[in-house]
């Protein structure tokens, strides 16, 4: 109790400034500057297991398998670290480690690794994910991708075009599927003369 409260007590009014037994009955006033006790630690792998065990709509088994693989790499990198302490810089460090030391392309990291972590961490910030995470550190994060350089021209090389046209001439008529056999024989030639792609209407 503060000094103002003590001066107003009956004990103080009687000029008795010894310890006030009445005040001792009340709990201590909490310190507003004190830091709340931290919650339980939850790891990246535990987040994945919680997501995997929960209800999922339209998630293919192949997607779950891919996510499991990605979170295996993530958990191996961060070990027992609490996911709520992870920042975008931490996730970027993991992504660059995957690229520089494990030989994964930036394109694959963006489309597979970061996409998987972003999806499940995003789920963990929602009501369905019991708000296990306060924020999603993967939002907006991606590695710069190198422009893919083509090692060959878009068109067929002459010797390959000749092989395709020669193979088309060997197609025999099929009585059961006459249109299909005719397409196999003549579509390559029509495409070669017109410059059109097969899917652009050169054949029915």
Structure at a glance:
Helices cover 49% and strands 0% of the residues.
Detailed description of the structure:
The chain is mostly helical and 204 residues long. Among the domains are: 44-129; 158-199. It contains eight helices and no strands. Helix 4 packs across helix 6 (106-124) and helix 5 packs antiparallel against helix 6 (106-124). The longest helix is centred in the middle third of the chain and has 19 residues, at 106-124. The chain is rod-shaped. The chain starts with a helix and ends in a 10-residue tail after the last helix. Mean pLDDT is 85; it is low at 1-6.
Give the overall average pLDDT: 85
Residue share in β-strands: under 5%
Number of strands: 0
Give the uncertain stretches in residue-range form.
1-6
Radius of gyration equals 35 Å
Q: Please summarize the sheet with the most strands.
A: none
Q: Give the CA-CA distance, first to last residue.
A: 93 Å
Percentage of residues in helical conformation: 40-55%
Order of helices and strands: HHHHHHHH
* Structural class by SSE content: mainly alpha
Q: Can you count the helices?
A: 8
Shape: rod-shaped
Keywords:
8 helices; 0% strand; 49% helix; rod-shaped; mainly alpha; disordered N terminus; 204 residues; single chain
Draw up the topology in text.
Elements: H1 3-7, H2 10-13, H3 44-53, H4 61-78, H5 88-101, H6 106-124, H7 158-169, H8 178-194
